[in-house]
């Protein structure tokens, strides 16, 4: 292998696929591999957390029903430990409750099976693009401050009263979008269009879940004055005051 080949391999983005269906895992691995991703497979849920820290992937694709431990528990522990690695649920469980739970636990996407490999690839690339923004150098002015809240888009960091706040990629994206439009109401459709190029279908709760987690992590739920306001039947408004 020459130097150019080593550079190309090292530049590949690494995906950990936690999936116990051998046939499906092989199919996904082959397709993603042909499209430039380095895929590693873990078939047991009780080994997934340790494997994630050992491998340090750019993204985790996670089934829910797994031997040893289910995907929700895995996601919960990773987020509780402070891991910000993007997580995409890929599961046959497509009930609204499961979707909302997965997003509330900190997942970036919840994708129902069956799915065409090329569609899965498109979702993965979209999540990786959003996560990859943290590697891009930004201008000196690429930051915002509201009272005790500081948001640095170049470094992808958030602080409240000088203390860092750990946000997932999708949570940071929503916060940055709202903060850039402080004082303006953004509809759910506005937010989905900006972040995922999708139209709001009237039932997608992913935005609501991310807003709730943001409020909790930023201390908004404990505040007497709403800082990220719900405008009923319209959308959300980031207040530039009371931070």
Protein topology:
Elements: H1 3-11, E1 13-18, H2 22-34, E2 37-42, H3 48-55, E3 59-62, H4 71-80, E4 87-91, H5 96-104, E5 109-112, H6 117-132, E6 143-146, E7 149-152, E8 157-160, E9 163-164, H7 169-180, E10 185-187, H8 188-196, H9 206-217, E11 228-231, E12 235-238
Helical stretch count?
9
The number of distinct β-strands equals: 12
Which spans of ≥5 residues are poorly predicted at pLDDT below 50? 1-10, 134-141, 197-202
Approximately what portion of the residues adopt beta-strand conformation? 15-25%
Classification by helices and strands: alpha/beta
Helix content: 40-55%
For the record, the CATH class of the largest domain is: Alpha Beta
CATH superfamily of the largest domain: Response regulator
| Largest sheet properties | 5 strands, parallel
Mean pLDDT: 83
Per CATH, the architecture of the largest domain is 3-Layer(aba) Sandwich
Give the SSE order as H and E letters.
HEHEHEHEHEHEEEEHEHHEE
- Provide the number of structural domains: 2
Shape: elongated
User: Can you list the strand order of the major beta sheet?
Assistant: 2-1-3-4-5
Rounded to the nearest angstrom, the radius of gyration is: 19 Å
Distance between the termini: 55 Å
The CATH topology label of the largest domain is Rossmann fold
Molecular structure report:
- The structure is a single chain.
- The protein is elongated and about 55 Å long.
- α2 links the parallel β1 and β2.
- α5 packs parallel to α9 and α7 crosses α9.
- It has two domains: 132 residues, Response regulator (Rossmann fold, 3-Layer(aba) Sandwich); 102 residues, Orthogonal Bundle (Arc Repressor Mutant, subunit A).
- It starts with a helix and ends in a 5-residue tail after the last strand.
- The chain has 243 residues and is an alpha/beta fold.
- The strands form three sheets. It has a five-stranded parallel sheet, with helices on both faces.
